[in-house]
Amino acid sequence: MPDYTVLTIALLACLVVNSTSYDKYTIEFYPGNRNNVTMNTEPFMKINDSYYYFGMHAVNWYVAYEKCRVLKSELVTFETAEEFEAIVNYLTVRGEKRDFWTSGNDLGFEGLFNWFTTGQGITISKWAPRQPDNYQGKENCMHMGYVWPDSTEYQLNDRPCTDYFIPYICEAPAQETISLVVWK
Ligand SMILES: *[C@@H]1O[C@H](CO)[C@@H](O)[C@H](O)[C@H]1NC(C)=O
Ligand SMILES: *[C@@H]1O[C@H](CO)[C@@H](O)[C@H](O)[C@H]1NC(C)=O
Ligand SMILES: [Ca+2]
């Protein structure tokens, strides 16, 4: 115990001494690319301030997740209706109607869908009518698509994670600008 006392006093002394001098470095964090630095973002493309990759190979949900991880990203998560609409708009103006995997699933608790990237619940109200229905008790992974034959827009639906093969959307991590001020 005496050793700890000495150490504590030494640390306290240190703090007192340091508190009389300015910080040599000051670091600040800002969301996004604050200084508009030119970047190579391949293979991701920017859609309304986030970066996405559209994987057009038809794969099951797990393989889709692995494909995104290889790109140091994850299957897409729609935290806001605006983000969902931005992606829907991007696909719609290109005449796209295929299904795409998202990160959503209820593999943890049947009937409780969460975004796998964040562990948060699905807060956007974009499920297709009568979905999720866990059809034949086999559907635990969420995709976006023209779910019913008479669907007129992209909506969300649950499908089998392993026995259903569709393209997928990866979302890159958010960017952050770090500003470092130094007294030189
Ligand atoms: C970066 O671009 C945005 C949007 O064009 C602009 O509002 C902002 O002033 C720019 N920032 C810098 C540091 O040039
Ligand atoms: C882009 O994102 C902002 C902020 O989330 C949102 O208000 C806006 O509606 C989005 N724009 C489009 C085209 O989705
Ligand atoms: Ca379903």
TrEMBL record:
The keyword Calcium does not apply. Keywords: Signal. Residues 47-162 form the C-type lectin domain. CDD domains: CLECT. Residues 1-21 form the signal peptide. Pfam families: Lectin_C. InterPro entries: C-type_lectin-like, C-type_lectin-like/link_sf, C-type_lectin/snaclec_domain, CTDL_fold. This is C-type lectin domain-containing protein. The lineage of its organism: Eukaryota, Metazoa, Ecdysozoa, Arthropoda, Hexapoda. The gene is Dwil\GK23834.
